[in-house]
Amino acid sequence: MKCELCDSSRQDEIQFGSFLIRYDKAAHLNCLILSYGLKQRGSDNVDFNGYLFSDVSSRRRYFYKQSCCYCNERYANLKCANKHCQRLFHFICGIENRARNQYVKPYFSYCNQHVTKPKYRPKSTEFCCICYDNLFDESKRFCPVTMLRSPCCRDNWFHKLCIQRYALEGGRSFRCPICNNTEKFRKSMLLWGVFTHDNPTEEEIFQEHMDHLIVMRRELFEPQDEDEPLVAPLQIDPPLEINFNHDYHDDYDSDDYDYDYYDYYHHNRFNNYHYFQTPDEKSKGFCIGLKRFCCVINNVLCHPFVVLQQQSQINVVSKSYHILPFSLVPIITKLYRQQGWLVFWKGFFESLCLKGVSLLFRNLHFFDEMPFIYVGFKGVIAVIMFVLKVNGLKMTVGTLMLPNDNIIGCGSKFWPLFFIYLSLEFAKWTFSALAKKITRALFRNKSTERRIIAEDQECTMQTDLITRIITETVFYPCETVLHRMLLQNTNTIIDNLDTGTTVMPIFTYFKGTKDCFKTTVGMEGYKGFYKGFGGLILQFAVHAAIVKIAKWLS
Ligand SMILES: [Zn+2]
Ligand SMILES: [Zn+2]
Ligand SMILES: [Zn+2]
Ligand SMILES: [Zn+2]
Ligand SMILES: [Zn+2]
């Protein structure tokens, strides 16, 4: 069974806490507590310990669209509470990548880059006071999340996992294993990501203090000789000096100041959930705006080369292959002189529409619960995409010198080509997602140190470019075949890119996709599949230039 929130089925009582199963649903208790935007609205015995099923499933729909910064999968349910950080991650990925969760209201989480750095560092020979093993693992690097210093008695260090195990065993009586401190120790540990699902009530804390006082009294009056009976009567004054609401700052010497407490109190002054919904997105917003702007500019500036690339690509009989961009330069000047600048933006509107619709197709997720309507809707969008693709292609390659007849749809069989087109698109998306993952991983390895958001943004633009180059190069031959098939029998007249001044009609008689492959190999050789690749190289160049400029701007 998978957790409703993080979509993981992994269970580990000690690391991830208990795994609740209710009817056919399951969830990590910690996911319920920590997921951002999810509140406990019922009493403890309702649904998931007071987290209503309806709330959980509405959050689930939302998390479906959020991808994890560590594993890139969907259902990222935690959000870094640093206001300059927009990272989202899975509860489990967070634990494995040294993010911190605070098990104290308002249950913030911090990604590994924004965990507050403690003032104290352990000595390299320091050992864990619970397991007596060396505190450090092989890496010998201090990690503030997995190595915790006792807040009550100085300079005792613990492995987080050891203290976590200890906390779960201790339950309500979870206290410092060295000095038995309860309140301060427990509070700090909860803030540092150690959870215990059995928190004592205020009365129990009060009782704890009473017991402590009784013990102190007894020790005071205890006779030195063990054999003699206890003579002094036990009289206990009400412990008026205990104030449960006092500020924790008072407990700290000035040099013992802990940043986590500051964080906690600082955040508490705001309304918790309000904070999540209106984060300060100024710098991030600028970067996203810049990225979108660059995307549009990229499409506009690349289109002339798309025109050249596609015209060369579909021409079966042309003598020049234009695999490198240099041969295109004289053609560009000739075309411009003869037909004006409009020749380079033919079919731009259609291709923009296609980009928009395909974006809609890929990002449409909100019919999670009605699969049939969802599939039907996607099917309709796919057909629209296909029609736009065919017409965009016709508009792009058709010459301006002669009027082309605008028949909607393609000349040859509609449905077989539709399915070929759709499967090619799917293959491209899957491949590019994979390529993106790999390049991103390589980039992350290259620079593991802290990066600010702007640099992150620029990094994704770079990975986008690399992914695009790889994907389009790999799929270019398939695209060539598809484009040739799409234009068969459409009576399209194109510019002749051998001369740049004449026009020519397309006459092809492929019996099918296979035949198209064979004919291409036979007539043009394997090189024929990369006809017009020079145009694509120029598009990459424009894209790269834009990435460079964006980097300079941000
Ligand atoms: Zn979970
Ligand atoms: Zn993840
Ligand atoms: Zn962060
Ligand atoms: Zn240990
Ligand atoms: Zn202690």
From TrEMBL:
GO molecular function: zinc ion binding
GO biological process, one term: mitochondrial membrane fission
Ranges of residues in domain RING-type: 128-180
Topology of the protein relative to the lipid bilayer: Multi-pass membrane protein
Broad class of where this protein is predominantly found: mitochondrion
Sequence intervals crossing the membrane: 373-394
Keyword Zinc (UniProt): yes
Keyword tags: Membrane, Metal-binding, Mitochondrion, Mitochondrion outer membrane, Repeat, Transmembrane, Transmembrane helix, Transport, Zinc, Zinc-finger
GO CC, alphabetical: mitochondrial outer membrane
Residue span, PHD-type domain: 1-115
Taxonomy, superkingdom: Eukaryota
UniProt-annotated location(s): Mitochondrion outer membrane
Protein family: Belongs to the mitochondrial carrier (TC 2.A.29) family.
PANTHER family hit by this protein: MITOCHONDRIAL OUTER MEMBRANE PROTEIN SLC25A46, TB1 PROTEIN-RELATED
Protein name: Solute carrier family 25 member 46
Organism: Ceratitis capitata (Mediterranean fruit fly)
